[in-house]
Amino acid sequence: MKFGDILRQKREERRMTQADLAEHLGVSRQNISSYETGFKIPPLSVVVAAADVFRCSTDEMIGRKIS
User: Fold this and answer.
1) Which domains does the chain show, CATH number per domain?
2) Which of 4, 28, 30, 65 has its CA 20 to 30 A from that of 16?
3) pLDDT tens-digit series, residues 11-48
4) HSE of 52, CA atoms in CB hemisphere, 13 A
5) Distance between CA atoms of 65 and 39, rounded to whole angstroms?
6) What is the distance between the alpha carbons of residues 34 and 32, in angstroms, rounded to a whole number?
7) Considering just the CA atoms, what is the radius of gyration of the chain in Å?
8) How far apart are CA 30 and CA 37, in angstroms?
């Protein structure tokens, strides 16, 4: 699963709008939309902040599975 898919899934599980998440991450709602659709790749700082918001690891946010 790609970052955008994971971001959307976690956002929807928390019942957050794109605007809500954008406020938490300090980016625009349009950026959240672009990340979710894969149009833009987020900077590392956004990945880390999203992991903090969703209380998960950055590995989980980027879809990395450690075996």
Assistant:
1) 3-61 (1.10.260.40)
2) 65
3) 999 999 999 999 999 999 999 999 999 999 999 999 99
4) 9
5) 24
6) 5
7) 11
8) 11
